[in-house]
Amino acid sequence: MAMWQGAMDNRGFQQGSFSSFQNSSSDEDLMDIPATAMDFSMRDDVPPLDREVGEDKSYNGGGIGYSNRIMDFLEEPIPGVGTYDDFNTIDWVREKSRDRDRHREITNKSKESTWALIHSVSDAFSGWLLMLLIGLLSGSLAGLIDISAHWMTDLKEGICTGGFWFNHEHCCWNSDHVTFEERDKCPEWNSWSQLIISTDEGAFAYIVNYFMYVLWALLFAFLAVSLVKVFAPYACGSGIPEIKTILSGFIIRGYLGKWTLVIKTITLVLAVSSGLSLGKEGPLVHVACCCGNILCHCFNKYRKNEAKRREVSYYFPLKTLWRSFFAALVAAFTLRSINPFGNSRLVLFYVEFHTPWHLFELVPFILLGIFGGLWGALFIRTNIAWCRKRKTTQLGKYPVIEVLVVTAITAILAFPNEYTRMSTSELISELFNDCGLLDSSKLCDYENRFNTSKGGELPDRPAGVGVYSAMWQLALTLILKIVITIFTFGMKIPSGLFIPSMAVGAIAGRLLGVGMEQLAYYHQEWTIFNSWCSQGADCITPGLYAMVGAAACLGGVTRMTVSLVVIMFELTGGLEYIVPLMAAAMTSKWVADALGREGIYDAHIRLNGYPFLEAKEEFAHKTLAMDVMKPRRNDPLLTVLTQDSMTVEDVETIISETTYSGFPVVVSRESQRLVGFVLRRDLIISIENARKKQDGVVSTSIIYFTEHSPPLPPYTPPTLKLRNILDLSPFTVTDLTPMEIVVDIFRKLGLRQCLVTHNGRLLGIITKKDVLKHIAQMANQDPDSILFN
């Protein structure tokens, strides 16, 4: 058969029951989601549009004895018709057509009255107002999350007696007993050992602080995973794979809902504060999309059109670009007003390097790119293998235990090392830092063998004891981050990958940068140095190597290039280092692509079986539409409806015996001449609505999809005219169309199905799922691996 197989198990269509379509089938066959997600009863977050059937008593039709009049109850729109079930793909072409019709109607009416003109202006302005609200809400939530996470991270080590709501840094800002060298130590900030046993010295105090650190980490992690499991299972993970799928037209109700937003905001703070190897940048994308989706329901043109909510998906018109820029501007202004980083800047890791890079340094930068590509490929393979094990074994049934075990291991191993004990954002900031004379960090513990410095620049210096100690600690930190991130990403808590990936690269870059710096100092006479690095000059900047390494590892994991460099600009403000960043990012992508074509988010999309067509992949196989379409040879015939010869009972029988999401309409079963395509959901709603409005409609009533109907004998039951729910221009291709073109059509037009004809006769149908299965089969993959679960 040629249609989509159902997501939910639709066992039949109950006459007189309007609820049957709620569990109707999906256009993506054999959809399944975990049991926890099935318990997630939050469909009200994104309600099916205008779902309730109205109580309009008027109809155009007659009862028995008036059969010459056709009941065309679709002269007025029926609530629910034209909307979509959960786990369905939207019809982009139909949605854009409806929006154009709506806009045309508003424009025409604006010439008739002043009120209509005002309505037209408000409709045009609503997009900008929506962007303003999204920017304000997203920026406010981002600032709240940053401030809360900073405070709760410091809570694991102590508390401010001058005000418990102050984090460590803010607590010591106004203290009169702080020295510059020990600016993080002040009487107002007390560690847990000072509060419990009144001392911070000795082995017992260390044990107390150790115990409290692990205890707080476990508490935060337990609260995070419990809130996600009980209230919003969709709040777990990064959210970016699902966002990409939703933007491509797939519907996952509740994923961008209000409960998901609330729980993800709270649990993101808890997860980051627990000290796990995860970041908040990816989940913040999910939070921002939730803000946009919720606010869309305040505006009629977005609430009633699924495509309008996804304008940035298959195309990016100029008006959307400007509106996106405006929303980003408002969010940045809001974030600047909140000042969550405490440095009066919009960037998280502001850098200010005093020494320009030299052309020779492209060699170590490219080496960092190679490392980033290798790390990215290794991480993707091992993380996907672990996530697949979680999905296919008993491990997936115990998410709370898994999170607590990983948190306990992370906290126990992290506390003894100051670089793993601090938050990952603080670690990256310290690694990016360019050492100055007054820096007290161990990374800046150099031997000062100079009398003067020019322009505030410090010459390269021999490393001191603190630097060597920091190198060993950073090497251990690198190993821990590489291993523990594999098991952390994908757990049932909000978890981003940007910051952990950047941390791995920044550590590797700093280690390489210090090594290059010492080589330049002790072997200045070498040919590679003496042409551009003079004695006593500041030649090598280890912080720059850390920044390049961070970009390389992030690129290896995500396979981003241009956007990655832009992100690094946003995070650091280092605009003058575009060449090193691009060199590392491109090298990282090339190396990682040589070992595996997928980035981490694409790999998780494939692992979860989301119906997503990657626009960047080329389809180079010489197959035809007839090779992919359903039905195949020896398959049952294609299930179709005829335009003027089927009764209500016939249609209801087809609906109850099949799980397809739509049916082609033909002139007759003999001719198989295509007339159009009708959705299962629209059929069910329309028949239900007709039965409620007209008592004369019975099982023997004829359904017409034609413009006019022939005269009928007296005392014949009223007929139903359903032409208005019929798509008269379904997308069609011939049976000899190359699949390369068909795949391109599905990608660029966002089709959910395409009908296959031969000389105007209907032969079969190709769905988005069929295309995905065919691509997997051509790549020697299991076609069933793309089933949504």
How much strand? Answer: 5-15%
Gyration radius, to the nearest Å? 31 Å
Q: Share of helix among residues? A: 40-55%
Count of runs of 4 or more consecutive helical residues: 27
Mean pLDDT, all residues: 80
Family: Belongs to the chloride channel (TC 2.A.49) family. ClC-5/CLCN5 subfamily.
Keywords: Antiport, ATP-binding, CBS domain, Cell membrane, Chloride, Endosome, Golgi apparatus, Ion transport, Membrane, Nucleotide-binding, Repeat, Transmembrane, Transmembrane helix, Transport, Ubl conjugation
Region (Disordered): 1-26
Domain CBS: 629-693, 725-785
Task: Walk me through the structure.
- This protein has 789 residues and is mostly helical.
- The chain is built from 27 helices and 11 strands.
- A hairpin with a 2-residue loop joins strand 10 (753-758) and strand 11 (761-767).
- It is elongated.
- 44% of the residues are buried.
- The model is unreliable at 1-74 and 451-456 (pLDDT under 50).
Keywords:
transport; 27 helices; disordered N terminus; 789 residues; 49% helix; 3-stranded mixed sheet
Topology:
Layout: H1 35-38, H2 92-109, H3 114-155, E1 158-160, H4 168-171, E2 189-191, H5 192-197, H6 203-231, H7 240-247, H8 258-273, H9 281-296, H10 300-303, H11 318-338, H12 362-392, H13 399-414, H14 418-421, H15 424-432, H16 465-488, H17 498-522, H18 527-530, H19 542-558, H20 562-572, H21 578-595, H22 600-608, H23 625-628, E3 641-642, E4 646-647, H24 648-657, E5 662-666, E6 674-679, H25 680-693, E7 702-704, E8 720-721, E9 732-734, H26 739-749, E10 753-758, E11 761-767, H27 768-778
Helix pairs in contact: 3-8, 3-9, 3-11, 6-8, 6-13, 7-22, 8-9, 12-16, 12-17, 12-19, 12-21, 12-22, 13-16, 15-17, 16-17, 17-19, 19-20, 19-21, 20-21
